[in-house]
């Protein structure tokens, strides 16, 4: 009986892991260029840049519909990606801001951020190297 229970638990865990997106197990970090003097940031501060409320940094976004993007916006802004897209649409329409550039992968986001000292982006922690600096780790 114990063996059957253990087998069922293992099977359930394996099935759950197969359904979850890979980013569910990854840690997301907010990054800036290694050339940027910033060393630390709070989620509330990061939200200001990714919601178009501050132009101190240029936000760089992951691909629309990606799991990391959805998770990032939920954790940092307490909004889903569609709500954030609506905010940016209004800002662009009124001429107050330009929407963040979108990139397809962690590597592309990292390169765009590394190349621009004013840029801010987010990637999986496993993709960090010495070209960028982590200023916020999302829990």
From TrEMBL:
**Which UniProt keywords are given for this protein, alphabetically ordered?**
Signal
**Highest taxon above the source species:** Bacteria
Q: Which Gene3D superfamilies match?
A: Periplasmic binding protein-like II
**SUPFAM superfamilies linked to this entry:** Periplasmic binding protein-like II
The signal peptide stretch is: 1-26
- Name listed for the protein in its UniProt record: ABC-type phosphate transport system substrate-binding protein
Origin species: Pseudoduganella umbonata
């Amino acid at each position: 009986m114990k063996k059957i229970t253990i087998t069922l638990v293992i099977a359930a865990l394996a099935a759950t892991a197969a359904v979850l997106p890979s980013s569910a197990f990854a840690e997301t970090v907010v990054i800036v260029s290694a050339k940027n003097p910033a060393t630390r940031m709070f989620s509330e501060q990061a939200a200001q840049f990714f919601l178009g409320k501050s132009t101190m940094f240029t936000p760089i976004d992951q691909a629309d519909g990606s799991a990391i993007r959805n998770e990032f916006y939920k954790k940092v802004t307490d909004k889903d990606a569609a709500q954030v897209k609506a905010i940016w649409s209004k800002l662009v329409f009124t001429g107050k801001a330009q929407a963040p550039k979108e990139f397809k992968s962690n590597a592309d986001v990292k390169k765009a951020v590394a190349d621009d000292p004013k840029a801010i982006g987010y990637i999986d922690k496993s993709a960090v190297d010495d070209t960028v600096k982590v200023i916020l780790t999302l829990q």
